[in-house]
Amino acid sequence: MNFKPAPILKNEKQRLIAVERSAAMYKDADSLYEIYCHLAKEISNCPVSWAGLIDDENQYCIASDGLPDEVDKKIPRQETFCQYAINNQVPLIVSNMSKDLRFKFHPAVKNNLVKFYAAFPIISKDGYVLGTLCVSDNRVRVLSKNKIQLLKDLAQKISYQLEIQENFRNKNAETIIEVLDKISNKIENLSIYNVKIILKYFSNQILNENEKSFLIDNKLCSLKHKKLKITPLGNELKNELSLNIGILKRMQNIVNDESALDNLFNELRS
């Protein structure tokens, strides 16, 4: 017999929206979440721990501790243990995988690579299971009530961290769109390239001659003694944007990301 996929949840459509909103599976965030996997190993005394989010096709490992290097960070959903764990908001703990009908035919179980498996759901603030924090071992284990509670708490902290990151991204996007909107009110036919020049100037980055010419032509700067000097219009725009050091750093990061800036600029124009 073969390993059978888990049934799909009734609220799967809404759950997938919540997973997509987190966006964590598309970023290299190991350093942010690996501490949770390390703690999960310490609490459970298991040799392996990982945290992953599951969309409609794959499980994305956002951090791990003890997984072999050859294990891919993206695994087809239908090949994972965790597809069964997202069906409930309570932990899925299997002391002996070889005796569980759901898992006994999985290749990792048949090859005696995994005997014990415990998955603790990562639940969003609106109640959807985004993924799991897991521990595993190649021998049978039993977790105490205290350890189970500690691991549940860790999974909850991952959920909170995901929420913080989502809020941070949303705030950045709102700030940047507002900045783009104000710049477009001052300059006609604004392009992404033009926005980059203005932001580079306001954040004191080095400009080439073409970029300097753009600022002069649009009366944001003038040339005095071969040096750029901000004009009243330039000062007016800079003050209107009210760019502080923190915002400038975030703007600097996204200015260097063409696709991110392109998406935001398209939002503004639509």
Give a description of the structure.
This protein has helices at residues 12-22, 30-44, 82-85, 107-110, 145-186, 192-202, 209-217, 232-241, 245-255, 258-269; strands at 48-54, 58-65, 74-76, 92-94, 116-123, 129-137, 221-224, 227-230. The chain has 270 residues and is an alpha+beta fold. The chain has two domains: 12-165, Beta-Lactamase (2-Layer Sandwich), CATH 3.30.450.40; 187-269, no CATH class. It has a six-stranded antiparallel beta sheet. Strand 7 (221-224) and strand 8 (227-230) form a beta hairpin. The model has no long low-confidence stretch (mean pLDDT 84).
Can you describe this structure in just a few lines?
The chain has 270 residues and is α+β, with helices and mostly antiparallel strands. 48% of the residues lie in helices and 17% in strands. The strands form two sheets. It has a six-stranded antiparallel sheet with strand order 3-2-1-6-5-4. The chain has a two-stranded antiparallel ribbon with strand order 7-8.
